[in-house]
Amino acid sequence: MSLQTDIEDLWRRYDDGDLTATTASSEEYDALDAFLDALESGAVRAAEKRDGEWEANEWVKRGILLNFGLRETAGREYGGVTYNDVLPLRRTDDLAERATRNTPDGTVLRRGSYLGEDCIVMSPSFVNIGAHVGDGTLVDSCDTVGSCAQIGADVKLGGNTLIGGVLEPVESAPVVVEDGVSLGAGCRVTSGFVVGENSVVAENTLLTPRIPVYDLVEDEVVYGRLPPERRAFARFVESSVGDHDLFDGGAFKPAVVALDLEATTMEGVEREDALRE
């Protein structure tokens, strides 16, 4: 049987109520451990790009949910402090052979997360189960990479960046940051938003499907994605709310403006590239 078949069979029994944390056998826990190992090796991913669109691998997200539903919360040790969780932290003895660095005192890598080659993970930061971080990517201090988030190769996540997690519903694609993207400090990317490859996003920009992206390159408004090769920044635009008893002049709503990448200065990205070289 394949790993996918094993997980789908476990899920069917769990969803029917025939499999619980108290009835699961050692062989079934071995299957869950093998699944987590496959996530950490990059053999399986929570989402993949097919025909130009990102799609969730539902069986992978179900495997993650099974690990939560079939394991008991237990006290565990990290940095001299006891924490309580159903999963231990990820082992890191495989990172050195891939030239990937995680700095001490606060880089928390949860079991089932993947880090590629030549990555840098600065403390404090957190990478959750199911997250996939590509080769050459920088996860800076105070960053969070949520469950199942797909981060491409050669990505720069600025300090205090939040990449949201999307675990349920299982058919929903998670947050995706494609290859070559640079997110400025304090950015937030949530709810399955897709940041197109080689884009540069200014500091403190919120990217979520509920906020419109005014793409001045194609002269259109899009939701849920930033097209590739864009320079994006936050702005406020006039909303449909007019004058009100409490204020004059109408109200404004947040928006994102996207420009042609080549029409803007790339000094910050070039400086970052020089540092990594």
Topology, please?
Layout: H1 3-15, H2 26-41, E1 47-50, E2 53-56, H3 58-69, E3 74-78, E4 81-85, E5 101-102, E6 107-109, E7 114-115, E8 120-121, E9 125-127, E10 132-133, E11 138-139, E12 143-145, E13 150-151, E14 156-157, E15 162-163, E16 176-177, E17 182-183, E18 188-189, E19 194-195, E20 200-201, E21 206-207, E22 213-215, E23 220-222, E24 225-226, E25 230-238, E26 252-260, H4 267-276
Parallel strand pairs: 5-8, 6-9, 7-10, 8-11, 9-12, 10-13, 11-14, 12-15, 13-16, 14-17, 15-18, 16-19, 17-20, 18-21, 19-24, 20-25, 22-26
Antiparallel strand pairs: 1-2, 3-4, 22-23, 25-26
Helix pairs in contact: 1-2, 1-3
Strand and helix order = HHEEHEEEEEEEEEEEEEEEEEEEEEEEEH
**What's the CATH topology label of the largest domain?**
UDP N-Acetylglucosamine Acyltransferase, domain 1
- Identify the CATH homologous superfamily of the largest domain: Hexapeptide repeat proteins
What top-tier CATH class of the largest domain fits best?
A: Mainly Beta
How many helices? The count is 4
Q: Kindly give the count of domains.
A: 2
Indicate the structural class. alpha/beta
Q: Helix proportion of residues, in percent?
A: 10-25%
Distance between the termini: 45 Å
Assign the CATH architecture of the largest domain: 3 Solenoid
In what order do the strands lie side by side in the largest sheet?
A: 5-8-11-14-17-20-25-26-22-23
Overview of the structural elements:
The protein has about 280 residues and is α/β, with parallel strands linked by helices. It folds into 2 domains: about 5-75, Tetrahydrodipicolinate-N-succinyltransferase, Chain A, domain 1; about 90-275, 3 Solenoid (UDP N-Acetylglucosamine Acyltransferase, domain 1). Helix content is about 20%, strand content about 30%. The chain is built from 4 helices and 26 strands. It has helices at about 5-15, 25-40, 60-70, 265-275, and strands at about 45-50, 55, 75-80, 80-85, 100, 105-110, 115, 120, 125, 130-135, 140, 145, 150, 155, 160-165, 175, 180-185, 190, 195, 200, 205, 215, 220, 225, 230-240, 250-260. A 10-stranded mixed sheet has the order 5-8-11-14-17-20-25-26-22-23, with no helix packed on it. A 6-stranded parallel sheet has the order 6-9-12-15-18-21, with no helix packed on it. A hairpin with a 2-residue loop joins strand 1 and strand 2 (about 55). The protein is globular and about 65 Å long. The mean pLDDT is about 95.
